[in-house]
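Quick one, tokens below. Sequence please?
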């Protein structure tokens, strides 16, 4: 899906980035300035599922934009059983993370309870009849303990074969059986890193030992921050919680310049793909002295789970 401020299109492209073609235009709301939900979509069994302005749509791949079906929206709340509060709609309530597993599409919604606190809750869409039901909510700290964003959201989640696997930054790796609601801890990941970011695949959870900070180059820890720093190791866990590999990223810091952030993208088979973003120094004053943000190189990197080899495979942007 194109990431522009104009009309939104589904495009196809070969794995070598050639032969890009526009497949179709999507219906979207021009007034929604936030790219967080509008710029993400998934394809599953002949349909494109996407979110625009708190509305979840489905349209046949290659179909007309006006034929898009509304699956869930603020107007459909009364038709959905909400278990733990009242949905709040603040311009980006539906998480951009959509997922497909078998006959179901999954999405997250912020739910506000009677005390005014929010919890991220997982909803399932039956693709046969488009019925929507709530199937899971962020666990209470009394059940799983404290973590970086206690009581609000998980760091990462993954649905497969009737289970949701999730990582709580600073609070371990877990899974819940969606049908029974039974939750079990899979790994004590806090033994490896106090914070951390994770990605999942059908075989692994890959955990990066970064920490949340106030801005690029800062050492001040700010739980829940989008800025991360100090990552130098990826811990690879099997989905049963077994720690299978530790991959050092310290060699990436050998090149000249400061490393601002490492962001994992995906894990495919035995390869972990991630971006490294560099910083360039400045002569500015005040708390930001010495930094101009992420104006260094942006590199696409790959880590081989079997061998532990780490390499830069493509430079997306040269530093300024």
């Amino acid at each position: 899906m194109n990431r522009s401020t104009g009309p939104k299109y589904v495009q196809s492209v070969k794995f070598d980035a050639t032969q890009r073609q526009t497949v179709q235009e999507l219906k979207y709301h021009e007034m929604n300035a936030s790219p967080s939900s509008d710029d993400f979509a998934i394809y599953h069994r002949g349909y494109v599922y996407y979110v625009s302005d708190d509305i979840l749509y489905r349209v046949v791949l290659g179909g007309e934009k006006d034929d898009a079906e509304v699956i869930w929206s603020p107007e459909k709340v009364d038709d959905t059983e909400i278990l733990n509060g009242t949905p709040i709609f603040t311009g980006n309530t539906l998480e951009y993370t959509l997922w497909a597993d078998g006959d179901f599409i999954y999405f997250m919604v912020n739910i506000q309870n009677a005390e005014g606190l929010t919890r991220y809750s997982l909803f399932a869409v039956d693709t046969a009849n488009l019925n929507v039901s709530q199937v899971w909510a962020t666990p209470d700290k009394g059940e799983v303990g404290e973590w970086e964003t206690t009581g609000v959201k998980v760091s990462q989640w993954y649905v497969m074969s009737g289970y949701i696997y999730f990582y709580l930054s600073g609070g371990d790796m877990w899974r819940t059986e969606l049908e029974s609601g039974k939750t079990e801890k899979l790994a004590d990941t806090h033994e490896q890193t106090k914070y951390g970011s994770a990605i999942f695949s059908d075989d692994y959870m890959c955990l990066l030992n970064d920490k949340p900070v106030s801005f690029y180059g800062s050492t001040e820890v700010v739980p829940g921050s989008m800025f991360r720093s100090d990552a130098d190791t990826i811990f690879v866990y099997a989905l049963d919680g077994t720690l299978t590999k530790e991959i050092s990223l310290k060699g990436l810091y050998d090149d000249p310049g400061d490393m601002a952030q490492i962001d994992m993208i995906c894990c495919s088979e035995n390869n972990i793909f991630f971006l490294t973003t560099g910083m360039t120094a400045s002569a500015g004053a005040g708390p930001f002295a010495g930094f101009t943000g992420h104006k260094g190189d942006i590199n696409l990197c790959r880590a081989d789970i079997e061998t532990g080899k780490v390499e830069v495979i493509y430079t997306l942007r040269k530093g300024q």
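Confidence is low (pLDDT under 50) at residues 31-38, 281-292. Residues 191-320 form one domain.
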